[in-house]
Amino acid sequence: MTKPESISSATGPNARGRARAETRTNLVNAGLRLFARLGYDSTSVKQIAQEAGVAQGLLYHYFESKEKLLQAIFQISMEDVRRSFAAAGAIGSSSALEQLIRASFRIVQENQEFWRLSYALRMQPAVLGSLAEPLAEWTTEILGTLERLLRDAGYPAPATEASILFGTIDGIAQHYTMMPATYPLGTIVDALVTRYAGSQKTEAERDTDHGDNLD
Questions:
Q1: What are 107-160's pLDDT values in tens digits?
Q2: Would you tell me the crossing angle of helices 93-110 and 185-197 to the nearest 10 degrees?
Q3: Could you please report the per-residue DSSP string of 59-78?
Q4: Per-residue pLDDT reduced to its tens digit, 95-106
Q5: Which tens digits make up the pLDDT trace of 37-63?
Q6: Which secondary-structure segment (H or E) carries 93?
Q7: CA distance 75 to 80
Q8: pTM of the shown model
Q9: How far apart, in whole angstroms, are the C-alpha atoms of residue 105 and residue 175?
Q10: Average pLDDT score, the chain
Q11: Any residues with CB less than 8 A from the CB of 113 and at least 6 apart, and which?
């Protein structure tokens, strides 16, 4: 016969730690849902607490303000992106470019609600002010990784090409989050991979491609 779990193990430090982590995750998810559905400015701390099923005072035990909760949401997602980019960056050559492109869109698919929130809030001055520093660091980090991979793959002007690729990924992701049920993400990602990682073009061929695209 299985012994019942002792009171000490059920309510010990590990159990309390798990409970705290679960409550924090619940609050983050509740804030994410409401920010995406109602907008950041229109969502109150009281509404977040109600959505999470906790007392408003408990929310302040985990986050000092709604702004701190917003920062926590973005930090979690930025860390996911950093891990994926770091893994791709360790591979080297055009294979890393493919891994990075595909990983970027896997993140968007797995975290659609976050990315809808991100694009919805991007142009709100209050939000941009709150997230200006971490977003600037995140952008610089991504551009640096892309530039290094593109340089390793033999692209001329890798800094410029990195900005183009980053903007392309961002634009595709935004379109996908607006209509995820119908947007042909897989086909478009395959085309993007082919363009950047499918073949090793010479510098003259790439210059010709860029010239053609400007016509």
A1: 889 888 778 877 877 777 777 777 888 888 888 988 998 898 899 888 999 999
A2: 160
A3: HHHH-SSHHHHHHHHHHHHH
A4: 888 888 998 898
A5: 888 889 999 999 999 999 999 999 999
A6: helix 93-110
A7: 9
A8: 0.74
A9: 12
A10: 81
A11: 32, 33, 36
The residue assigned the tokens 């001055």 is 125
Between the alpha carbon of residue 212 and those of residues 31, 157, 196, 201, 209, the distances in Å are 46, 17, 16, 15, 5
Helix (H) or strand (E) holding 23: helix 13-38
Cα(199)–Cα(184) distance, integer angstroms: 23
- CB-CB contact of 24 with 54 (8 Å): no
Between CA 82 and CA 77 the distance in angstroms is: 9
43: nearest Cα among 97, 162, 124:
124
Cα–Cα distance measured from residue 150 to residue 211, given in angstroms and rounded to the nearest whole number: 19
Residue 87 pLDDT level (bands cut at 50, 70, 90)? low
Strand (E) or helix (H) holding 56 = helix 56-62
